[in-house]
Specification:
single chain, alpha/beta, Glutaredoxin, 2 domains, 5-stranded mixed β-sheet, 10 helices, globular
């Protein structure tokens, strides 16, 4: 029996209708259900509009304890970890009823975090790989309307090669352990820069051009072909503007 089936055996599911195209599984007495449904519809509509796609039957399962979340992931999760999207159009997230109790997030963050996870599912329809991680996470952050909490005077802005410290899953995870906010913030700021200066369509085309297995060399080649500049040149533009 799968871990998610074990979790869901005491939950009730409700279909969200043709516009949201999904289901929510929840505890019968969860007082936040109406809010969750409203936020799900908001997130789905926002992501669908941004990516100009639809995904049928996304399933959101609400989680009610850190222990449940750890069992789903298979290891102990940090206090900032509140949910994730898997490869089969499923999202697992703490319910708003426990969001600030089981994590260091404010429950007001629930809507944008849920939208972020929904965006990951849309991105997966464009690019069937999680790497480069900064591109996927930065785009999900941007599409969900989240903001960076990283200050411009952070030492990370003094290292023009930092992007390739957070391009693979292993390097991303290593950075998160020591500085949880930095990878997400930097990824968002760079994607925001690419969209503002070079258009959203070009970012999407870059994702579409990448294969299922990440290679720094191939990524740099694809980037140069699409942008007409080496990634290092774009990074210098990005960092110079951040330090202005």
């Amino acid at each position: 029996m799968s871990k998610d089936i074990n979790l869901e055996k005491n939950l009730i599911s409700v279909e969200l209708g043709p516009q949201a195209k999904g289901f929510v599984s929840f505890l019968a007495k969860d007082p936040s259900l109406n809010r969750v449904i409203k936020d799900f519809r908001y997130g789905y509509t926002r992501a669908s509009s941004f990516f100009k796609k639809k995904i049928p039957k996304i399933k959101l399962t609400l989680v009610y304890s850190r222990e449940e979340m750890n069992n789903l992931i298979g290891h102990k999760t940090p206090s900032w970890f509140v949910g994730y999207a898997d490869s089969s159009s499923k999202i697992f997230m703490f319910s708003p009823s426990v969001f600030d109790r089981e994590s260091n997030h404010n429950k007001r963050d629930f809507r944008k975090v849920l939208c972020h996870e929904i965006c990951h599912l849309f991105i997966r329809k464009i690019h069937n790989s999680y790497e480069p991680v900064w591109l996927e996470e930065g785009l999900a952050y941007y599409a969900a309307g989240q903001k960076s909490r990283l200050k411009d005077n952070n030492p990370i802005f003094n290292n023009p090669k930092v992007l390739f410290f957070i391009d693979t899953r292993k390097r991303w995870d290593k950075t998160i352990v020591s500085q949880p906010d930095v990878p997400y913030a930097l990824a968002f700021l760079l994607v925001d820069f690419l969209i503002r200066c070079y258009s959203k369509d070009r970012v999407i085309k870059l994702l579409m051009s990448l294969g299922d297995r990440y290679s720094k060399k191939i990524f740099c080649q694809k980037f140069r072909k699409l942008y007409g500049k080496d990634i290092e040149v774009i990074l210098k533009e990005f960092f110079s503007r951040q330090n202005e």
